[in-house]
Amino acid sequence: MTTSTQMPAVTPPNPPARRRRGSAGKFQGGNPLVYAIAFVVVCATLGPVVYGVLGGFRSNGQLTQNPAALPDPWIFSNYAGVIANPSFWQYTFNSVVVAVVTTAIVVVFGVMAAYPLARYTFKGREALFMVFVAGLLFPATVAVIPLFILLTQNLGLGNTWWGVALPQAAFALPMTVVILRPFLKALPQELEEAAQLDGTSRIGFFWRILIPLSGPGMVTVGVLAFVGSWNAYLLPLLLLQGDMKTLPLGVADFSSEHSSDTAGVFAFTTLAMIPALVFFLAMQKRIVNGLQGAVKG
Amino acid sequence: MTDDAPVTTAASPVTSSGPAAGATREGRPAAGPSAGGRRAKRSQRRKYLEIAFFVTPALAMLLLFVVWPVITAVQMSVFRWNGRGPLVDFVGLANYVSILGNDVFVGSLVNNLIIVVTSIAIQLPLGLAIALLLNRKMWGQGALRTIIFVPYVLAEVVAGVIWFQLVQPQYGVIDTILLAVGIEPPAQGWLGDMDLALWTVVAILTWKYLGLAVILFLAGLQGVPEELYEAAQLDGASWWQVQRRITIPLLGPTIRTWGFLSMIGSLQLFDMVWILTKGGPANATSTMAVFLVNEGTRSNNFGIAGAASVILFLIALVMAVLYQRLILRRDAKGVA
């Protein structure tokens, strides 16, 4: 553990090194075989998703008669039904609130904790950092049953947004600190010295210089926390009922309650995934950077 | 602001060598017992207050929601408890003995290990092959990378619900296509067949997570210096030789860290299995997480669930430490 945790100190966040596109030297592409393989990969990857989207435009009769066909005629009632379904919007709203609260806690507490760990010298700093690294070893799954008891019996947070958001944030914090610390460390020391010469305290430095400059790092950890919360299933499954359910629970319930209405299931699932999918793909670089940073930590 | 003066001088060498700077700093205030010493002490106290202010919220969250439940799991595991009333029925290690002799738990554990191994064994060569093929100037490269990432950013639940429909017997599209090309699909469906269910789950997991491997490998490939390729090209190396002798060895750290992510994920697998099969048929696809959720929520055997949690944690811990020791250590050394 110890050896790897010191790595970030030595290697500042990678962007500069990776700016160079690794496109050359691969002995120029354009080979038809490469395109053929790329085509197969795209079909295999997108096939199920596209099938789900198109399935929402078909009737159940069409789906049973010929599963592998295009909509004929195109039917919009499935999607209209989902859009008119108040539960769908309630689930979406719950998911948004839980994800936003989780993300806000993770980013604020994460950057606060990472700041002294990155830029203060004090006895026990590395030991304190190790507490967060050790936190990485406790997957949420392991503690989910006692967590469920703690939240419902001791804290009275069963079936609330906070009951899901707080533990999710807690489990995301170790990774956040591990990603942010090298990021904050890499900001030049001269900035801090100049700020101090100008009479700025360390807290002033944190607010006026560090926070604005660490925007990209905070976006990265924020996006990771948001994606994690948005897709989470196990903890919400144990804690949330009725109107408090998040979208993944809604999708799973709809799928089991309307198992004979395949077209409806496809429509519901499609509408639940498309907006998030677009947002996450736009943030792809952040997610990849974050995962790489986390792994290196 | 004079308070901060001693800190400024002490703080400047911090980033270069942490512990050493700390040591000299400790020594300084002790040496001077004068007014300067008192001032240093006050600023020292102020510094610790600042540290406490910054770190406490995160630490409190960790203690309350991570450490405390884990300790509770250990405590639960040595009692027989149905979730109500105080913990009084101390049973020692009986819960551990009970689950280690429980076919369902042992089967779940074996399934987890199968998924850990097969995920890496399938996704590594496949991901590497795709990444190497795509790592060249080609039309639509950006779009391709984005598309490959789609299954990864989908929720496991969403992917599971879609695949559940695709692999249905009779009206599922997979069976239709297979029948069209003359292959007879299993009668009880892919997820209903005792022998095939786990492999179907593994196949769907491959679809879901292959993109992550490809994307991470592609990102790693961009760190390979181009001069190496140019030199190899000048030496007349073939494309395959370049990949085998240069690219893959240099991709080592990325591959090893991806393997770590994949392993930890496989050990915790729950969502996909719960959506596709709930662990069935006859526990053929159950995992440790499925087992402990079943015991904890349906049977109210919290002692058993606690023992399963502890065993899952110990397995994850041992595998993580071994992986770190045997595989990742090389990378840390390489950097230091």
From TrEMBL, chain A:
Membrane spanning stretches? 33-54, 96-115, 127-149, 161-184, 205-230, 263-282
The family database entries (Gene3D superfamilies) matched by this protein are listed as:
MetI-like
**For the ABC transmembrane type-1 domain, which residue ranges apply?**
92-283
Alphabetic keyword roster = Cell membrane, Membrane, Transmembrane, Transmembrane helix, Transport
Q: Origin, by domain of life?
A: Bacteria
Question: Where does it reside?
Answer: Cell membrane
Is the keyword Oxidoreductase assigned to this protein? no
Q: Where is this region: Disordered?
A: 1-23
Family of this protein: Belongs to the binding-protein-dependent transport system permease family.
Its protein name is Carbohydrate ABC transporter membrane protein 2 (CUT1 family)
Automatic annotation (TrEMBL), chain B:
Annotated region (Disordered) at: 1-41
Biological classification of the source: Bacteria, Bacillati, Actinomycetota, Actinomycetes, Micrococcales
InterPro entries linked: ABC_transporter_permease, MetI-like, MetI-like_sf
Keyword Transmembrane helix among UniProt keywords: yes
Q: Which organism is it from?
A: Isoptericola halotolerans
Q: Where is the composition biased (Polar residues)?
A: 9-18
Q: How would you describe this protein's topology in the membrane?
A: Multi-pass membrane protein
**Segments forming domain ABC transmembrane type-1:** 109-323
Q: Which family does it belong to?
A: Belongs to the binding-protein-dependent transport system permease family.
Query: Where is the protein localized?
Result: Cell membrane
Task: Please list which residues make up the signal peptide.
Answer: none
Please state what the protein is called.
Carbohydrate ABC transporter membrane protein 1 (CUT1 family)
Is Cell membrane among this UniProt entry's keywords? yes
Where it mainly occurs, coarsely classed, is membrane
Q: Which Gene3D superfamilies does the record cross-reference, listed alphabetically? A: MetI-like
